[in-house]
Design brief:
binds pyridoxal-5'-phosphate; about 15% strand; single chain; alpha/beta; Rossmann fold; 20 helices
């Protein structure tokens, strides 16, 4: 049966349920499968299957120890009418590329796909492991994870959810979505800092033994809904397999034909899921990793040097304003051939010296990744051009991906069929999208939602309609060093 081990080589071996409950390994490493699963059948046999069926084929390979019924049950609870598209993730062809629209869930961003199912996987895991303590989901968000996790976990039995978001750096709409969240067990807190501060704070808390022991004594245990949790990552593999099957089905690729996958990237979770899909059997030519001005990953892919000694920029694709891409650690583990001592020393270097360089043999293995970036201005230009040429509206994050892809195609002449992960609804970043296509329109971000609708005739996602009329329920703002005391305060009131 598949087991999960730490990227940094302590001796922990966990089953899937335990890895999902715990979230992060005891030695600060991330859980990875000890052996990467394969689909075990020809992928063309999945032609004609629905999203839920393909989800079962993928999830069952990773969730060793879960019964067939448990997996089906979680899938059925997750992928229902909450999604505004029956296909869950429609694949839309525009201008010769395939946009995989991942944003039809409850919060209008791709993170809904995984966070709709994670709570069901987690509650099942708790039952299987006979865990009686209450699970506290601790989440740092660059804007979209927080709301998607809140929606997923609101009023889920035996859980509390605490979300920290950077007080500067999330969009007005993202912020409003979070602070209006209902649910007895939801807690939303602004942190005076950026996303890396929030993520580092959360990671530190996970690794603080005395703090965790004192929570245990109060009947709580921490877990994560960030993509450091394998339970977040695994459901994301499904849609890449699904997209490939759709391309086969539509006759847009031949059997065993390769595709390129373009992913606008922040924490490296979504693109890592694409890599896992490839390991499972999806034939991939290139993974194109797109960044905004915080282009640590572009430089890394081009040079093999990961260097965070640089300025942090707030951009118009805020969910990618990240310098430390946590999930890269998992990729490095796999391309090193599972050499945990190498990973441990690279990650320690990153912590101490703020940079590391890959050994040559690992640089070699990175060749199937191409990196590129787009600044704010070119992002808006890309939105405008695609809208004018293709009458198709994309958000700023997706536009970063599309921009980087267009440059790649121009430079390489590579005409491999290409799937772009379309990670958010254009309505979620209305200010920027309006600035791109109709800059004469003025107003608050909420008024602009309606103006965007009038200008384009596209549909406003349910999640974003009437947002400005909802009551604000969460007010806390804290300093960076108050995260632990805030958690205690929230939980001890319970
Ligand atoms: C989170 C997010 C990303 C980045 O995804 P990672 O898995 O962190 O790389 C890109 N676009 C949007 C809209 C997001 O919410």
């Amino acid at each position: 049966m598949i087991q999960y081990i730490s990227t940094r080589g302590n001796q922990e071996r966990k089953n899937a349920a335990q890895a999902i409950i715990q979230g992060i390994a005891m030695d600060k490493g991330l859980f990875v499968p000890d052996c990467l699963p394969v689909l075990g059948q020809d992928i063309s046999q999945l032609i004609g299957k629905k999203y839920a069926d393909i989800a079962y084929e993928v999830l069952s390979k990773y969730l060793g120890g879960f019964t067939k019924e448990e997996i089906h049950d979680a899938i059925n609870k997750a992928y229902d009418e909450k999604f505004e598209s029956e296909e869950i993730v429609p694949l839309v062809e525009k201008e010769g590329v395939f946009f995989l629209e991942l944003y039809h869930g409850k919060t209008a961003a791709f993170k809904d796909v995984a966070l709709s199912i994670l709570p069901h996987l987690l509650t099942t895991a708790l039952k299987k492991e006979k865990e009686n303590r209450k699970v506290v989901i601790l989440t740092a968000t660059s804007g979209d994870t927080g709301k998607a996790a809140l929606e997923g976990f609101a009023d889920v039995e035996n859980t509390e959810i605490i979300v920290f978001y950077p007080s500067y750096g999330v969009s007005e709409i993202q912020k409003r979505q979070m602070v209006t969240q209902k649910g007895q067990n939801t807690h939303v807190i602004a942190l005076k800092g950026n996303f890396d501060d929030a993520q580092n704070g959360v990671k530190k808390i996970f690794n603080d033994r005395p703090f965790n022991e004192s929570l245990h004594n109060e009947g709580f245990m921490l877990s994560s809904a960030n993509s450091i949790n394998v339970g977040r990552l695994i459901p994301q593999i499904v849609y890449y397999v699904y997209a490939y099957v759709k391309l086969l089905e539509k006759g847009r690729i031949k059997k065993d034909g390769k595709i390129n996958i373009v992913v606008p990237t922040g924490n490296f979770g979504n693109i890592l899921a694409a890599y896992y899909a490839c390991q499972m059997g999806v034939p991939v030519n290139q993974f194109i990793c797109a960044s905004n001005r915080n282009k640590v990953l572009t430089d890394f892919i081009n040079t093999g040097i990961y260097n965070i000694n640089r300025e942090f920029h707030v951009t118009n694709s805020p969910s990618m304003d990240i310098l430390i891409s946590s999930n890269l650690e998992r990729l490095l583990f796999h391309i090193s051939g599972g050499q945990t001592s190498v990973i441990k020393s690279l990650m320690e270097k990153l912590e101490k010296e703020k940079k590391y360089e890959l050994p040559e043999y690992m640089k070699e293995k990175m060749r199937i990744f191409t990196g590129g970036y787009a600044d704010d201005k070119s992002t808006l230009k890309t939105i405008k051009e695609l809208y004018q040429k293709g009458a198709y509206l994309i958000d700023t994050h997706t536009a970063v991906g599309y921009n980087v892809y267009l440059k790649y195609r121009r430079e390489t002449q590579d005409d491999t069929p290409t799937v772009i992960a379309s990670t958010a609804s254009p309505y979620k970043f209305t200010n920027s999208v309006i600035a791109a296509i109709a800059p004469e329109k003025q107003g608050s971000e909420f008024q602009l939602i309606e103006k965007l609708q009038q200008a384009t005739g596209s549909r406003i996602p349910k999640a974003l309609a009437d947002l400005d009329k909802k009551e604000i329920l969460h007010h806390a703002v804290i300093e960076k060093d108050q995260m632990m005391s805030q958690i205690k305060e929230v939980l001890l009131k319970k």
